[in-house]
Design goal:
Blueprint (H helix, E strand, L loop, with lengths): L6 H4 L2 H4 L6 E2 L31 H11 L6 E4 L1 H13 L5 E6 L3 H10 L2 E6 L10 H7 L4 E7 L11 H12 L5 E5 L21 E6 L12 E4 L3 H14 L5 H12 L1 H24 L4 E2 L8 E2 L2 E2 L7 H10 L3 E2 L1 E2 L10 E4 L5 H17 L6 H17 L4 H4 L3 E7 L3 E6 L2 E6 L3 H9 L2
Helix pairs in contact: 3-9, 4-5, 4-8, 10-12, 11-12, 12-13
Length: 438
């Protein structure tokens, strides 16, 4: 194994320092859940080794949603561990894997570390980030051992139609030895009808998920993998036992309560996600710097600068973080151009989301490199100063900042329910004098 640290981990909010971030739009989950919200009492829990597969009651609760039986489940320390187990069990050096890209970083990096040959199914913005089963089928070869999908997709929030998923299952089943890995981490956050769990469709399919993203419980490190192939599950169990033997019984006890309460908690979580998505939709509709394919599930989208927007991308990210304390997931986290970024809208509080979106606009204008660049940068800086100066006034006291506007070329404003702020720009004569002075 040739390990190397991934940019998404090196540059993650937790590594950078949460205390240094004002507006965190980089997270790919809902807000973290305080333990008190689950109402858990653990005083009588015995801190012994647990069942190597995972505690039976927890596996039964997960299996009810995964479309397989409790004995087909393997509980792991998060979905990342499940993905690692699948990759290292099924792939060796020079074996081939077909991977959808962009993708969650672990799905990209672990096959590389193994020395597997990665064949990319590159999704395209122009196609709505859709997965074409025909293009996928053309990538399978004699050495293909694994086909890796993420549905709902991270980082774009897109879905696969059920007929397309079943066609991919059929393609894999007709191959001599390939298996299908589906990262289903966002399945519980599908806005419409969720897809059937992958493991319920074929013994060749492996489903992976966790409680981190949709339940706001990344701190207990509970994920799972599901497979109807008993022999394969034994191989996965052997890998888990050699790596860590068993999970934390504390984590599993908390997870069992969370699974039992999931049906009552998820509707409120989904309502919050829809409201946040509406906020982002409104922001995108009021500007002409960024564009995206609107997500159909999950809590992330993958906007990009419009092709005709001239911007210094390094300046954009630097100003966004250093001046406005705002962080997003730049495209290179996902093997994509840095003009793209993952925008997480489910984790921040509404006030932080509003403030972060305004900061994205301000940083983009400050990083503008086209005609009138000097004036446009001043316009962006004026927006930024407004954001910094009125943090307590608008963003705390009004429920929604609707838009940033420029009026007559000389005035900018932040407009929202219950009030706003106007910032006057220098006159055209003053701008001309400044340009003449260099």
């Amino acid at each position: 194994m040739d390990y190397r640290r991934m940019p998404i981990e090196i540059e993650s909010p937790e590594q950078f320092g949460y205390d240094r971030i004002r507006n965190n739009l980089a997270e790919s989950s809902v807000a973290d859940t305080p333990l008190r919200d689950l109402g858990i009492e653990l005083d009588d829990l015995v801190l012994a080794y647990g069942d190597h597969l995972g505690q039976p009651a927890l596996r039964a609760a997960i299996a009810a949603e995964a479309g397989v039986g409790p004995d087909d489940m393997l509980v792991t320390p998060g979905a990342a561990a499940a993905l690692f187990i699948v990759h290292t069990t099924l792939l060796g050096r020079d074996d081939e894997i077909v991977v959808v890209r962009p993708n969650y970083a672990t799905n990209l990096e672990t096959p590389r570390a193994i020395g597997a040959r990665v064949r990319w199914l590159d999704l395209r913005y122009e196609d709505g980030w859709s997965v074409d089963p025909g293009r996928l089928a053309a990538l399978l070869g004699p050495r293909t051992r694994l086909v890796s999908l993420t549905v709902p997709h991270n980082p774009t929030g897109q879905m696969i139609a059920e007929p397309a998923l079943r066609e991919i299952v059929r393609i894999v089943e007709t191959h001599p030895q390939a298996r299908l890995l589906v990262d289903e981490t966002y399945r519980a956050m599908t806005f419409g009808e969720p897809l059937p769990p992958a493991a319920s469709l074929s013994s060749r399919a492996i489903g992976v998920s966790s409680l981190s993203k949709s339940d706001g419980l990344p701190g207990i490190r509970i994920g799972w993998l599901a497979t109807a192939d008993g022999g394969l599950r034994e191989r996965f169990l052997a890998a888990k036992e050699q790596i860590l033997i068993t999970n934390s019984v504390v984590d599993e006890a908390i997870a069992e309560v969370a699974m039992r309460r999931r049906a009552e908690r998820l509707p409120g979580i989904l309502d919050g996600i829809r409201m946040a998505l509406g906020t982002v939709r409104g922001w995108l509709g009021d500007q002409d710097l960024f564009e995206w394919v609107e997500p159909r599930a999950g809590v992330v989208g993958f906007p990009r600068f419009r092709p005709d927007v001239p911007v210094d991308i390094d300046t954009f990210y630097r100003v966004l973080l250093e001046r406005y304390g705002t962080i997003v997931g730049p495209g290179h986290w996902f093997d994509q151009p840095r003009r793209h970024f993952r925008l997480g809208y489910g984790w921040p509080r509404p006030i932080e989301l509003e403030r972060g979106l305004a900061a994205l606009t301000a940083a983009a204008v400050e990083a503008w490199t086209g005609p009138r660049a000097r004036r446009d940068r001043r316009f962006g800086a004026a927006i930024g100063n407004a954001l910094l100066e009125i943090d307590g006034q608008i963003f705390r006291d009004t429920p929604r900042v609707e838009r940033i506007v420029e009026s007559g070329g000389e005035t900018i404003g932040l407009a929202g329910e219950g009030g706003g702020l106007t910032v006057t720009m220098p006159s055209a004569e003053a701008e001309a004098e400044a340009e003449a002075d260099g």
